Amino acid sequence: MHANPPNKASKNIAPAVAAVLTENRQGFFRFLTSRLGNLDTAQEVIQEFNLRAISRASDLKDPNCAIPWLYRVLNSTLADFFRREISRRKGEAEYAHL
């Protein structure tokens, strides 16, 4: 039994995702800024989000669903950021008590 070879559409997903990222960058940035309240932090998270979205582009099965899929990736990236931030702050607080 052979695995199905990737079809032509799935090979073109990454460029399609990159195009949607570019077209919607301001919306994604506003979303992050409203939740983070800091432009520099939003810029940091959006860079991580862009990398994650491009590296996981093959997970997107339907290019017509790119925007909702990207918002799921964005929310996941933001949640990971908050988890790291909580961990970092806990570490700093523990260090401060030494």
Walk me through what this model shows.
- The protein is an all-alpha fold and 98 residues long.
- The chain is 77% helix and 0% strand.
- The protein contains five helices and no strands.
- The longest helix has 31 residues.
List the defining traits of the structure above:
98 residues, disordered N terminus
Query: What proportion of the residues is helical, as a percent range?
Result: over 70%
The structural class is mainly alpha
Query: Could you give the distance between the termini?
Result: 61 Å
Average pLDDT metric: 86
Shape: elongated
Q: Which spans of ≥5 residues are poorly predicted at pLDDT below 50?
A: 1-9
Q: How would you spell out the order of helices and strands? A: HHHHH
Supply the number of helical segments: 5
From the alpha carbons, calculate the radius of gyration and give it in angstroms: 17 Å
The percentage of residues in β strands lies in under 5%
Compute the number of strand runs.
0
Q: Biggest sheet, open or closed, and with what strands and sense?
A: none
